Amino acid sequence: MQVSVENVGKLERKLTVKFPAERFESQVTARIAEMGRTIRLKGFRPGKVPTTVIQQRFGAQVRGEVLSDLIGSTLREAVEQENLRPIANPSIDTTGQPENGEIAYTATFEIMPEFPEIDVAGLEITRPTAEVTDADIEKMIETLRQQRRSFEAVERASADGDFVMFEYAAQAGDYRFPAEGLERAGSVLGSGTLFKALDEALTGRKADESFNAEIAFPADFHNENLAGKTAQVEFKVIKVQEAHLPTVDAEFAKLFGVVDGDLATFQKEVRANLERELKATLMARLKGEVAEKLANAHPELDVPNLMVQSEARGLAAGSVPRGQQPPPQLVEAAVPMARKRVIAGLLMGEIARKQSLTLERKRLAEQLAAIASTYEEPEKVVELYNSDPQLMSGLQNRVMEDQVAEWVAEHAKTTTQTLSFDEVMRPVGA
Questions:
Q1: CB-based contact 240:205 (threshold 8 Å)
Q2: Exposed/middle/buried for 166, CB within 10 Å: 0-12, 13-18, 19+?
Q3: Cα separation of 161 and 187, whole Å?
Q4: Are 290 and 147 within 8 A, CB to CB?
Q5: What residue ranges define each of the domains in the chain, with the CATH number in brackets?
Q6: Is the pLDDT of residue 429 over 60?
Q7: Residue from 62, 68, 77 nearest 15 by CA
Q8: CA distances (Å), origin 338, targets 12, 144, 211, 251
Q9: Can you state the angle between helices 328-354 and 263-297, rounded to 10 degrees?
Q10: What digits encode the pLDDT tens for the residues 317-334?
């Protein structure tokens, strides 16, 4: 087998491999002979199908399969021989025909970059910590009560926390919405569903009351013809309903899967859920911090374009409706962030390799159990992951990234930042 390597880019390589045509023909002959012993064809006794018949019917298929197998095996040998680390399956180009007693093909692919010395000792990492308090549990239970609240009609004027159903029409210059009649809407006052000026206009109003008001619409209002403008708005209140919160009792606990309605058990489950969310968010923030600092420390690292483009498409896809392809300009705009993410991911992978970090099976099982616990039938989720190599591989990668982030935090200049539960769970930058 002859192998030659050509650099066609910073990380792109073209590998040319040649192997004896005799090796190919001998394997074709052997496979056809094997088929002759096992294949069943109408009109022939088992094991007595003539070789010429097999060649006529299956020769092209066999030659294609053998060629594919030989390319796969020789490519693995060539990559190992040349000490290359491809990042994805290569593009193969070949005629498949012998020439001068050899069959040749080219394989084009991108390889892993040459990594610099990754010294994490100088990285300044901030690691947030927090714990779930009794106050956090009480606040979550109150949130659950709000989610299960009911509404009953009242004759009094509306107040904060009431649900108000109303009809309206807005006139801004020559523009009217709706063009005819009234539009119906509803909201809980003070919930933030409506903007403040509408809340204020609807507060203190009774059912069947009609009135007009001058309303300043916010600049980000969903109707661009009203956004940022002041309009004359005609209102008609349809109904006012008062909120009633459920009592935290056995029946309330049963709504959340506590079969016997025991409140102590319910509180324990609320705490367990909050602690699971907190643990996951703390790890995500640490991982993000480590990734950011690693990428900033090695901004000039050459990274495979294939990986950057794939990451950019993934980022851009988050900005368009599900199922739609993001436009090229959106993908291009995501490239800088994608490149930074790829740099961070590759550096974390290299740290795992250099430090011989191995996947912690206990941590993997805990992570899978945590994911499964959020579903009604957790055992089926565990079974799904165990039977789906792609799902399991993704989970294993996440767990390994967690391990790398913790290793970096242990060896860097790490400062612990104590936060409350709410501070940790609040989106970064909010």
A1: yes
A2: buried
A3: 9
A4: no
A5: 2-110 (3.30.70.1050), 124-135+259-425 (1.10.3120), 150-244 (3.10.50.40)
A6: no
A7: 77
A8: 19, 38, 53, 49
A9: 90
A10: 988 888 889 999 999 999
Strand arrangement, sheet containing 102-110: 2-7, 12-20, 102-110, 91-93
Average pLDDT of span 126-145: 96
pTM of the entire structure?
0.78
Q: How far is CA 258 from CA 119, 250, 267, 377, 403, in A?
A: 50, 9, 10, 15, 34
Q: What is the mean pLDDT of residues 88-117?
A: 94
Task: For residue 365, give every residue at least 6 positions away whose Cβ sits within 8 Å of its Cβ, in sequence order, or none.
Answer: none
52: confidence class by pLDDT, cuts 50, 70, 90? confident
Two tokens, residue 245: 């919160």
- In whole angstroms, give the CA distance from residue 112 to residue 352: 15
Instruction: Tell the residue number behind the tokens 């610099």, with chain if given.
Output: 116
Q: Per residue in 246-259, is it b (16+ CB within 10 Å) or e — as a string?
A: eebeeebbeeeebe
Question: Is 158 within 8 Å of 200 (Cβ atoms)?
Answer: no
